[in-house]
Amino acid sequence: MVIATTGQLPYILVAIMASICIYAVLFKSNLFKKMLAIFLLTDAVNLLFIIQGYRLGNAIPPIIPPGMDPSEFASIAVDPLAHYFVVTAVVIGLAEVATLTALIIYTYRHYGTIETKKIKELRG
Amino acid sequence: MSPLLIQAPILAMLLTLLGSFLCVLFGMFMGRRAVELLSGVLTAATILLSSLALINVYLLEGPYVYYMGGWPPPVGIPYVIDRFSAPLSLAVSVIFFATMVYSVRYLEKDRDVKWYYSLRFLMQTGMYGLLFTGDMFHIFIMLELMGLSAILLVPFRKEVKASVEAGIKYGIYDILAISIYYLSTAMIFGMFGSMTIAEISAKLGGYVSPFSGGMFADPSALPVIVALIVWSFAIGAAIVPQHFWLPDAHSMAPSSISAILSGLLVQVNIAVLARILFDGFAAGSHPGGAVGLQLLVILGVASSLVGAAFMLVQSDIKRLIAYSTITNLGLITIGLGVGTSLGVSAAYLHIINHAFVKASLFMIAGVFIHATGSREIGALRGISKALPGTSLLYTLGTLAAIGFPPLSMFWSKLLLLLSVLSAGGVYPYLVLPMVVSIVFESIAQIRLLAIIYSGEKRAVNCHPSLPVILSIGIMISIIVVTGLMPNMLFEFGRLAAEDLLNVSGYADLVLKSLNYAAP
Amino acid sequence: MNGWRGSIFGVLFVVLMSSILIYAFLGYPELGFVRPLGEFYLFNTYNFENQDWWSASPNAVTGLLWDYRGYDTLYETMVFYVGIAAVAMFFEGHAKLKKTGGMTVIVRATARLVFVFTLTSAFAITIFSIKTPGGGFQGGSIMAIAYIAIIVALSKGFLPEMNIDLETAHIAKIVGLALITGLTIVPVIYSLASGSVAYAMQNQPKAWAPFGYPTFLGLTSLSGGLIIPIQLGEMVHVGMGFTIMFLLLTMREKED
Question: Which of B141, B270, B480, C133 would you call most buried, defined as having the most Cβ atoms within 10 angstroms of its Cβ?
Fold first, then answer.
C-alpha cells in the first residue's frame, strides 16, 4: 500500500467532503439542509471524477485542434470520459433539485415547517 | 437471428419512452380516454415484445448482448439479455399492464392523469434498463429515472398531507442512496478504468482489456466499494436499518402505484445488486466481493425479523402489506447472500413470485379501501359478505403470501429454507430466524383474513368494476397456475442462477461475442 | 440530538466515515494521468484513418455524449424531463398568463433585440458543439435565459408578446424529445425493415453494423451524422423545460 503523497491529497478532500455530506443528510433535521447536502455529495463525486481524469503538465481540453495528429492529441488532452460523466451528473442533479424543491415547497404548504422533527403524521 | 427477436427488448423500452411524452401531448389535446387508450396499447405491446425476448433467450438463440449504438462493451453500453433478466422483464411488463388496466377505474376521481401515466412509463423504462444493462454508470442513470418517477408518483394526490410527507421522506433517502452509488461508480472508474460490469470481474481475474488496460489501484480497497454499493441498494430496497421510508411511501401512494413499488421497484433493486455483486465483483470467488454477500446475509436476517415483528402490530391494511414486503426482501437477501446455486435460484424465484403476490394484494387492498372508505383493518369486518368475489381473490393472494402449499410462493420459500440448510458453515442456523419470521408473517396475515371473514354483512360505498376485477384476476391466476407447475418454476430459477453465477461465461459473452478486433 | 452530544456524534461520524474512504483511496494511484479508455476516445473520435471507431466529432466529449455513450444521454434527458414533470405536476393549473400592457415602444424593441441575440448565441453554441465546448444542454440553458430574463426584467405578462405560453412551451419541449427519440429509433426500424444489423442510437457506419446517418461530405467540421439534429432537439427540450419551470415557480398561487 502506498503512503499518502501529495499526489493523493485531493482524494482526501473528496473523502472528507463526502462524509460530511452523508452525515448531514442522515442527521440534520432541516429538509433544505438535507437537500443541499445531497447536492454537495454529488459535487464531491464530480470532483473525484475530474481529478481522476486530469493530466499533469500542459494539458489541453479534449477537443482536437485542426491539423493535430490524433496520437499526439491522445497523449496531451485530458480524459473526456470523466468530463462526460460529470456533464451527465450535473443535468441529473438539476432534475433532483427540481423534484425535491417542489416536494419541499408542498411540505411547507401543508405543515408550515420544513423541520423533520415537527412533521410527524406518519410513524415511519 | 431475426432482427425482430434481437430488437424486441430494446423496442419495448423505446415504446415506453415514446409513451412517456406522447401521454402528455394526448392529455393536453384529447382528454384522458386517449391517454388511457395509448398507455393500454403500448403496455400490451411491451408484454408481446418481452415474451418474444423470453422465447428467444430460452428456446431459440440463447443469451446475447445488444451493443447500444453499435459499440462493443468498454467503449459503449452493452445490454445483456440473458436468462436472468428476460423473465424479470416479462414480469415487469405483465404487472405494468395489469396495474394500467386497474388504474383506469381506480383513478377515475382524480383530475389530471397525464403526468401519472407519463411517469409510470418512465418507471417501466428505468426497470427494463436496470435489468438489462451491463454498465455501472448506466445503472446510475436508470436508478435515477426509476427513482425520481417513483418519488413523484407517491405524492400523486398532493392534497393529502401525509402523502407529501411520505414523498419527501422517500425522496431524500432514495436520492441519498443513488448519490452514494454514484460515489462508488467514481471509485470503480478510478480502480478499473472502465464502467462495464463484465470487465470488473475479468480484471479481478487478471484480464487486460485492449481498450481499457488492466487495474489502476490496489484491490484492497474493494471491500469499501462493495460495502458502499450494498449500502446504497439497501436503502433503495429497504433492507432493515434503512427500511423506515418503505411503509410510509408504499402505504400513502395510490394503490396502483403501491403495487408497482412493492412488487417491482424494490425487487429490481435487489436484482441489480445481485448482478453487480455476482457478475461484477465475482462474489462467489473473490474475497472482496464476498464481503458483500456476508453483509447481505446479516442485513437479510435483521430485515426478515424486524419486518415480521412490525406486521403483528399494524392496524392499517396497506402498512401491514408493506411490512410484509420488508420481511420477504429479507428472505430474498438471505438467499442471495448464501450464494450457492440453490440459494440464488430460490431468491430469484421468490423475487418473481413475490412481485405478483404483492402487487395483487395491494390492488385488492385498494378495492377494499375504496369500498369501506377507511384504511383501518377493523373497518374490514364483514366485507367478505359484501364483496365475496374480491374477498376470495384476497384470500388466494394471502394464502400465496404465507406460502400455502400448492401456490407459487410455497415453492420459493421451501427452496429458500432448503438452500440455507444445504449450505455449509453457520448458514444452517439461519433456518431459525427464517422460520420465526415466516410464522410471524403468517399469524399477521391470517389474523387479517379472520377479520375479513368475521362479522355481519356491512354496507360498502362502491363495488369494484369489471376491469379492476379482471386485472386482479389476471395476477391471481398467474399465481395459481405457476404454483401448479413447480417443475417449470424450478427450471426457470435454475437457469437464471446458472447465468448469474457463471462469471467467466458472462464476461466472455459481454466482452468477446463481437468478432471484431480492437484498433 | 442537539447540543454538545450532537456535535461529538457528528465529528465521530465524519472522522470514521472519512477514514474508511481514505483507507480505500490509499491504494489509488497518484493523480495526473489519463486512463487508456480515455485515450482510446481521444485517439479515435476524429481519426480519419480508422472510421470504424470514430464519432466524427472533434470534440471528444460531444462524441461521447451522443455517440459512444449516447444511450446514457438519452435517458439523462429523460431524467431532466422528470424534473420538469415534478414542477409541472405540483404547480400547474394555478394561474393563466395575462397580457400586461403599458410598456413603451423602446422597451419592447430592446427586449426583442436582446431576445434575438440570446437565442442566436444559444443556437450557435448548440450547433458548433462538435468543434467547441458546448452542447444541447448548454445551448438550452442559454435559450431559457432569453425567456427568464424577460420574466425577471419585464414580468411574465410580457411573454405572450414573444409568442410563448405554457402550452406552446410544452408542445415545443415534446417536439424536441420526439426528435431525439425518433433519431434513436430510426436504426431499429431500419434493421427491422431491411434485415441487416443496426443498433439503437447508432450514428456512424461500422464494419460490423453498416447502418449510418449520412455525414455531410465536404463539410467535415459540421459532420457527426445525427449529433447536430439531436443536439438541437435537446436544446429545445432543455430551453423550454427551464422556461416552464421558472414560469410555474414564479406564479402566484391565486390570481389577485
Answer: B141
Flag whether A124 is in a domain.
Answer: no
Chain C nearest C-alpha distance from A15 (Å): 5
CATH number at residue A32: 1.10.287.3510
Query: Mutate which of B142, B161, B179 to disrupt the A interface (most A C-beta within 10 Å)?
Result: B179
Q: Among C162, C154, C169, C166, which Cα is nearest to C97's?
A: C166
Instruction: Give the phi and the psi of residue B460 in degrees, each rounded to 5.
Output: -125, 155
Tell me the H-state helices in B373-463: 383-386, 388-402, 408-422, 431-453
Q: Which three cell numbers stand for residue C141?
A: 440553458
- Angle, helices B114-132 vs B136-153, to 10°: value is 150
Q: How many domains does chain A have?
A: 1
SS (H, E, C) C197-238: CCCCCCCCCCCCCCCCCCCCCCCHHHCCCCHHHHHHHHHHHH
Domain spans in chain B, listed from the N-terminal domain onward:
283-502
Q: DSSP characters for C156-175?
A: GGGGGGGT--HHHHHHHHHH
CB of C41 closer than 8 Å to CB of C54? no
CB atoms B190 and A48 under 8 Å: yes
How far apart CA A91 and CA C82 sit, in angstroms, is 11
Say yes or no for a CB contact (<8 Å) between B164 and A110.
Answer: yes
Answer whether residue A111 is part of any domain. yes
Q: For chain C, how many residues are written?
A: 256
| Interchain CB contacts (distance < 8 Å): A and B | 97
Give the range of the structural domain holding residue A27, as residue numbers without chain letter. 8-117
* B contact set with A (CB within 8 A): 137, 140-141, 144, 148, 151-152, 155, 158, 161-162, 164-169, 171-172, 175-176, 179-180, 182-183, 185-187, 189-190, 218, 220, 244-245, 247-248, 252
Packing angle, helices B317-338 and B341-372, rounded to 10: 170
Residue A83 counted as domain residue: yes
The reply to whether A1 falls in a domain is: no
Residue B139 host element (H or E): helix B136-153
Reference B16, options B84, B133, B118, B103; nearest CA is: B118
Per residue of chain B (519 residues), give pLDDT as tens: 688 888 999 999 999 999 999 999 998 888 888 999 999 999 999 999 999 999 999 998 889 999 988 898 888 899 999 999 999 999 999 999 999 999 988 888 777 888 899 999 999 999 999 999 999 999 999 999 999 999 999 998 888 888 898 999 999 999 999 999 999 999 999 999 899 999 999 998 888 888 888 888 888 889 999 999 999 999 988 888 888 889 889 888 999 999 999 989 999 999 999 999 999 888 778 888 888 898 999 999 999 999 999 998 888 899 999 999 999 999 999 999 998 899 999 999 999 999 999 999 999 999 999 888 888 888 888 888 888 889 999 999 999 988 888 888 899 999 999 999 998 888 889 899 999 999 999 999 999 999 888 888 888 888 888 889 999 999 999 999 988 988 988 999 999 999 999 998 999 999 887 777 777
Cα–Cα distance between A20 and C46 in angstroms, integer? 42
Domain extents for chain C? 58-250
Contact residues on chain C for A12, CB-CB shorter than 8 A: 18, 22, 25
Q: In whole angstroms, what is the distance from residue B430 CA to residue B436 CA?
A: 10
CB C171, CB C239: distance < 8 Å: no
Can you tell me the distance from the alpha carbon of B116 to that of B100, in angstroms, rounded to the nearest whole number? Answer: 11
Instruction: Note whether A80 contacts C: Cβ–Cβ < 8 A.
Output: yes
Q: b vs e for C138-171, b when ≥16 Cβ sit within 10 Å of the residue's Cβ?
A: bbbbbbbbbbbebbeebebbbbebeebebeebbe
Strand, helix or coil at C28?
coil
- Let me know if B453 is exposed, middle or buried by CB neighbors in 10 A (0-12, 13-18, 19+): middle
